[in-house]
Each structure stands twice: as C-alpha cells, then as structure tokens.
Amino acid sequence: MVVRRIGVVEDHASVVLGIEVMLADSPGLAVVTSATTVPELLAGRPDLDLVLLDLRLADGSSPFTNVEALRAAGLEVLVFTGAENPYMVRLAAKAGVLGIVRKSAPVDAVVEAIEAAAAGLPVVTTEWAAAIDGDPDLSEVGLSPRQQEVLALYASGEKADRVARLTGLSRETINDYVARIRAKYAAAGRPAATKVDLYMRAVEDGLLPMPERPA
Q: Which SMART domains does the entry link to (predicted)?
C-alpha cells in the first residue's frame, strides 16, 4: 500500500493531534512531521506528499509567502484553517494551493480533502470558489483564442498528443503553446508550473467550469 506522507504547519499542538486522530482510520495517510512555521518545516528537508497549512500563524507570516516557499521546495499545499479573513484566503488561493478546507468542516470532508490533495488532485470547496469569484485583482494574461483552446483541453486532463489531434496541430506546437501559456501566467504573477496549476488558472479565467462538489 502506498502511504501518503503528510506534514502540518500549525502553531496549536491540539490541532496537529486532531489531524492525527482524524487520519487514524486512513492507512494510506500518515502525519510524519509538524512545525509551527514554514521555515521550521523546510529546515528538516522533508520528503512529503502534502503539507497542511494554517493561514494565520503566530509568526505573522503571509499566506502567499508561505505557499510560495513550500511550492518552491516541491511541496503541494492544502490550506486547513479556521481563518475567516477573505483577503488571506485569496492570497493562499492565488499562490497555487490545491484547495482550502475549514477546520470546522465535517471529519469525513476533511479526510476526503486530504486524500485527494495528497494524490495531487485539486480540492473543490466553497471557500476556494469564493476566493476566485470574489477576487477583483486576478491579472489578465492575454491568451490568444488558440491558446485558450489549448489550455482548456490540456488543463481538463487531455494529454498533449490528444490535444494535438483535437486541434489539428502538431505535438511540438502544443508543447510550445503550453510553455508560452505558463510563461504568460508567470509574468502576470499567477504561476502555473504544474498541470493542476493550469487547471486552476483555467477555472479562474472561466475557460473551464467550476466543478461541482460530490454529493
């Protein structure tokens, strides 16, 4: 069995213990490390599949900076927070997290979100949707109609060969388009280094529909 390794950045020990209890019946998930700050976590050079990050930490750090640092270290992030500040939620969403889950959510919903994020999948919640819908500052990236078409197909899960067949372009051209799309998003301050990032950017810009949460 593949066990997904989880790290937690949280300055309340009781919350870390609560996460461990919630995951006790999920043999495929294990909390292997925790820290009160992102630099402390990264100092241990952790080999993790996912980091659970609180938005409001005692060190006063910015959610955007924290997510950027974790992503730069090759770590995916799921926000697990009780913070109600919409601005902080938007900062985290714009930095490229896999999703945002409230500490007040039902245990089953939290575990489901962690399982999905640990597998590298985006976690669709009302908080994430609200962060996108309520953000007036998402910078335009200026994609051409053709680039928008390629992004919508590629970010929806299609492989480059399939996108090439659907658009009548060569695979090399599709790869070039994707590289240019990533560069445009990076220049706009909305990085899209992974396919999940591209999916989120496509949703943010209305090129793909906001997926519905499972019932």
A: HTH_LUXR, REC
